Amino acid sequence: MLAVPQPLKEPLAEEVAAFLGQLRGAEDRVLFGQLQTAIDQGEVPPELEEALARLLRISLESGRFGRLYGPHAEAAARRLYLATEPGRQLQAQVEQINQALAVWQGRPLQAVQLHVRGPGAYTLELEGQGVRTVLVFDAQGVRLQGLEAS
User: Fold this and answer.
1) Opening angle at CA 110, ends 92 and 105, nearest 5
2) Distance in angstroms (rounded) separating the CA atoms of residues 77 and 114
3) Measured between alpha carbons, how far is 114 from 125 in angstroms, rounded to an integer?
4) What is the pLDDT of residues 43-74, one digit of tens each?
5) Rounded distance, CA 1 to CA 42, Å?
6) Staple partner for 59: which of 13, 24, 65, 88, CB 3.0–4.6 Å?
7) Domain boundaries, given as residue ranges, for the chain
């Protein structure tokens, strides 16, 4: 069970209500209705974490959460997102990339290039002293596409 911090209960309940008003599918309406009940009770069970993460991601990425509830609530919502399974996966992804980037410590960069892959998708290439790293940034987050070290 994922505990909902008391200061987030009301903002999250308002966000779920707004989200419910936009949903068309009966299955999603039931799912987010269950999420609303869980938020009211102060604990989100594992089977609803994905729905909570979806709600938080949309509200945080759009800037809506910060605009409506302020920077402290926004920071708390970000922490709650990172406590969900999708948030933990995102943190693991970043840790993996940081481990791969450790090869660069103490090495000078000779070339850095950013490329557009498509709308909202980019690659970042780092090259120098026998090392080449390619990172991809897109809607799924950031991931290591290639690491070559000689």
Assistant:
1) 40
2) 31
3) 6
4) 999 999 999 999 999 999 999 999 999 999 99
5) 10
6) 65
7) 2-83, 100-149
**Where would I find the H helices in 23-84?**
26-41, 49-61, 64-83
Distance CA 20, CA 22 (A): 5
| Six-digit token string for 64 | 């809506």
**Is 126 in a helix, a strand, or coil?**
strand
CA atoms within 13 A on the CB side of 114: 5
Residue 16's closest CA among 45, 71, 61, 54?
A: 54
Low-confidence ranges of the chain (pLDDT < 50): none
Distance in angstroms (rounded) separating the CA atoms of residues 48 and 39: 10
pLDDT of residue 24: 87
The encoded tokens of residue 27 equal 């299955």
Which is nearest to 52 in space by CA: 34, 69, 72, 65?
34
